[in-house]
Amino acid sequence: MNSIKPTTSARLAWFVGRRFGGSNNNSQLVSFISGISTVGLVLGVAMLVVVVAIMNGFDRDLRTKILSVVPQASLFHRDGIENWPQEIERISTLPGYERVEAAAPFVHLEGMISRGKTVIPALVYGVDPVLEADVSHITDYLHFETLQRLGQEPNSFVLGKGLAEKLSVAVGDTVSFIAPKPNGRAKAAGVVQLKIIALLETRTELDHKLGVMSLNQASKLTTIPGTVTGIRLRLYDLFDAPWVVSGISRQLPYGYYTSDWTRTHGNLYHAVQMSSSLVSLLLVLIIGIAVFNVVSTLVLAVVEKQGDIAILRTMGASPGDILRIFMVQGSVVGLLGTGIGVLVGLGLSWVAPHLLVAIEQLSGTDILRSDIYPVSDLPIDNRWQDIVFIAIVALVLSFLASIYPAWKASKIQPAEALRYD
Question: What sequence ranges are listed for the domain MacB-like periplasmic core (predicted)?
Fold first, then answer.
């Protein structure tokens, strides 16, 4: 018996495999299990696309919102820094500074903000209105004119929106800031009346603990008035912060110490990364379970198609041809489920933020509160690299799941299959 030519064999496998996969003559059980397998694969791929997009969104917001306002890296001196312009100039000549994009002075104050009988702990930064725009993205949330007013108007203050809501204050109101004096350097805490000129709304946890005032005003409330707490650095790559700032500090005189975002927000970042990895692994396993339902579908298809397989064998199809036919059938199911799953996932990731807003409005509750979670919006960031990776994983698993049933089909002997037909 002549075997089928290779080119004809490939066409046969593709044609018959597609016909077997989409045949209306399948038994109801085979059709039902095939549909369940496809739906399971669609849901697994779609959920993985959505979850990875959300995790990427949290990662993006952490970098672009929280880490764009708080210092990426800071140099402190135990006694404060008096002549900060000269100190910045000196630091800029040190090895390692070439990885620093900009530097600016700041004053770090931890105290209490009060209004009437309400007192709330707060973190207050004193900033230089001009230089601050170079080291942070604060101008994404405040007009540059607002920063200029901080330096021009005495006792002006920018308050986080979350703090303002807790204190029941608005722009134009006055609050009291109480700055404790540590180490017994002063007999009483520093108290100043501040007028709110703007509200800071980043829609992150910073809105519930951060306030901003001018550098000079904040310096008056420190233990050594006239000094700044430290110098804030913005790096080209924020992941260089730990070793860059430590390398610079080792070249400075005694009394300097450092901090960077991995100490202040590193736990949050690593938690996001770990959650992303664990959830992605879980969903990949779910995809694997859905994909291996293809095995059940193809095994049943092989049993049902024994007569057709025997006829193909008697017409000259080789065991390899039968193997390829059922590999094509399984791959078509995987391709269909993966393609639809990716499209559904992209659609759900686009709808999810709007759906969350609608649920919050209907229920009258804030599901994502920035005083509990890092952000108050559902962040979405679809990256084509992740989508391609998810699709490849699903397709590879579908291909692997097709091997065993296809191999079993190739071992069917025509005489045995046709004996009882």
Answer: 34-200
Q: Which amino acid is at 109?
A: L
Distance CA 160, CA 183 (A): 29
Residues 211 and 276 in one domain: no
Cβ 273 vs Cβ 79: under 8 Å: no
Give the number of domains in the chain: 2
Q: What is the pLDDT of residue 2?
A: 47
Domain span at residue 374? Answer: 6-64+269-418
Give the β-pairing of 210-214 and 156-160: antiparallel
Q: What is the pLDDT of residues 162-203, one digit of tens each?
A: 899 889 999 989 999 988 765 555 455 578 899 999 998 887
Tell the burial category of 350 from Cβ atoms under 10 Å away from its Cβ (0-12, 13-18, 19+): middle
Handedness of CA 203, 207, 210, 212 (dihedral sign): positive
**Contact (CB, 8 A) for 417 and 309:** yes
CA distances from 358 to 201, 341, 344, 352, 372 (A): 21, 24, 20, 10, 20
Assigned domain for 1 exists: no
Let me know if 237 is exposed, middle or buried by CB neighbors in 10 A (0-12, 13-18, 19+). exposed
For the record, the structure tokens of 156 come out as 């002006």
Cα(342)–Cα(333) distance, integer angstroms: 14
> What SS3 class is residue 419?
coil
DSSP state of 206: G
Q: Establish if 294 belongs to a structural domain.
A: yes
Backbone angles phi, psi at 52, to 5 degrees: -65, -40
Residue type, 382: N
For 338-369, write each residue's pLDDT tens digit.
899 999 999 998 888 888 878 777 877 766 66
Beta partners for residue 191, in sequence order? 178
Angstrom CA distances, 113 to 121, 138, 219, 393, stand at 6, 21, 17, 53
Q: Are residues 80 and 208 in the same domain?
A: yes
Reported pTM: 0.65
Question: CA 223 to CA 80: how far, in whole Å?
Answer: 9
